[in-house]
Design goal:
Length: 475
């Protein structure tokens, strides 16, 4: 009889976590498979009170899964040669902000907290992706402008920083780990925008004393599926309700700019500590995330479930090679010592890893928030330089088909996006390309004007010939 047919004991803590020094907002799979592991290794290498208190901003699910396990979980590395389990024990506790926002604010305002990190996804910053500014009309921000107990991530940061200022404490460092270009600048901007609305004196204190290091994070972490939980139980001999599955590769580049220099010894465990992360961000956002999103929409419309399935299709495999070599690399300045062609080859191997089942539907979520930094920036650079971009233009057209809620064969698509109703209305109008390009929340309007004709042609090609034939025709 296998473990999946019996009831294995629950995973539990085998050693104490260090005292808490970090609060992390948005305790999803990615941070638990990436940043938490780096921090645990840094503590093991050099010590320090850098235990993590996790915060779920909305759902209690993660707390309910992890609390019976003492906050511990399994990180399962999935490589072509097999799987390797790691018991992660750096997390001490999980709070749920919607249940008790006051407890979260107290935790963030505690003197021992030196860093508040975030993985709240692009939409969690309540900003306009096309401009990077705080969206003052966002319902969560409208709430947080007047309420002492906030519900948004920017609101949590501003109110907790205010508590520290009033108590005579130093601010914590705000370290975003989300896939946003200039992510440190974005989170600093939305925090200052909100603080200025609430109390200009607070905003000046944050602006002067606060630190918002930008980061670049890289590891493919597919959503955990029920069958993964069974496989983890088989592997470790215990039931883990919240394992994370990840590829072997990982990278973390961090601007070394922390309040009073206080941080874990990240450099001891392979984190690249730099003065400016911009070139690393652009490389990763455009070469990895840009092609991931392109494959998600074109792959989904071609009938493929995962990125590995896309890479097994010669048409999509050739498309992604074209994107790297002809459209994305020419628009980038490589970070010091980095060979972008070698990086592309490494990405190719990672995408083709059959052990990682990263679903196109999962990557396609929240496209209105992702397109500006993943694809539109490259398009803008190339169009200004006079370089044609048939592949990325086709990817934008594929997104336009996708958000209509119906695929090329008339089957329904469940579109998950904060702008889903607006997108569907535009995408199903008499002139869908023009209507979608007119959405300033997604497209800078000067770029939209230059995209109008090429995207319209790509859209018509998709509708007339299907995704695979459109790729073969254009590329």
């Amino acid at each position: 009889m296998t473990l999946s047919q019996t009831s294995p004991a629950r995973l539990t803590r085998t050693r104490p976590a260090p005292a808490v020094g970090i609060v992390h907002l948005g305790l999803g799979a990615f941070f638990r498979a990436h940043g938490a592991i780096y921090i645990e290794e840094a503590v093991a290498a050099s010590g320090g009170d850098w235990g993590i208190l996790g915060v779920s901003l909305q759902s209690p699910t993660m707390r309910d899964h992890l609390a019976p396990q003492g906050g511990t979980y399994t990180a399962m590395e999935m490589g072509p040669e097999g799987r390797k389990a790691r018991h992660v024990q750096i997390l001490r506790e999980v709070l749920v902000a919607r249940e008790d926002p006051e407890a979260v604010l107290r935790a963030m305002a505690a003197p021992e907290i030196r860093i508040v990190s975030l993985t709240v996804t692009e939409k969690g910053y309540c900003h306009e992706p096309a401009t990077g500014r705080l969206n003052l009309n966002h319902p969560d921000i409208r709430h947080d402008l007047t309420a002492a107990l906030p519900i948004s991530a920017p609101g949590m940061l501003v109110r907790a920083l205010d508590l520290r200022r009033r108590a005579g404490l130093r601010p914590f460092t705000v370290m975003t780990c989300d896939n946003l270009p200039n992510n440190g600048r974005v989170v600093r901007g939305v925090v200052l925008d909100l603080a200025h609305q609430i109390d200009p004196t607070l905003a000046r204190w944050i602006e002067t004393e606060g630190r918002f290091p930008a980061t670049m994070v890289d590891r493919i972490v597919p959503a955990t599926k029920p069958e993964d939980i069974l496989e983890v139980a088989e592997a470790i001999g215990a039931h883990d309700a919240a394992p994370v599955m990840h590829e072997p590769f990982r990278q973390w580049v961090v601007e070394d700019d922390f309040v009073d220099g206080l941080r874990p010894d990240l450099g001891a465990v392979g984190v690249q500590l730099v003065q400016d992360v911009t070139e690393y961000e652009h490389m990763k956002l455009r070469m990895l995330n840009g092609t991931h999103s392109s494959l998600a929409y074109l792959g989904y419309l071609s009938g493929h479930e995962t990125i590995a399935d896309c890479m097994a299709d010669p048409v999509l495999e050739q498309t992604v090679r074209h994107l790297w070599q002809a459209e994305i690399i020419p628009a980038l300045t490589p970070p010091p010592g980095v060979d972008l062609h070698a990086y592309a080859a490494e990405l190719h191997a990672r995408y083709a890893n059959p052990a990682i089942r990263h679903r196109t539907w999962q990557i396609a979520m929240d496209g209105s928030q992702k397109l500006p930094q993943r694809i539109l920036g490259t398009l803008d650079t190339n169009l200004q330089a006079g370089r044609p971009c048939p592949g990325l233009t086709l990817a934008v057209a594929a997104w336009m088909v996708y958000v209509s809620g119906t695929d090329l064969d008339g089957r329904p698509i469940e579109v998950k996006d904060p702008l889903a109703p607006i997108l569907k209305e535009a995408a199903t109008s008499a002139r869908p390309v023009a209507a979608l390009l007119a959405l300033s929340q997604v497209f800078p309007q000067d770029l939209a004007a230059r995209l109008a004709d090429p995207v319209a042609r790509a859209y018509e090609l998709l509708k007339a010939n299907g995704a695979r034939r459109a790729m073969e025709t254009l590329l």
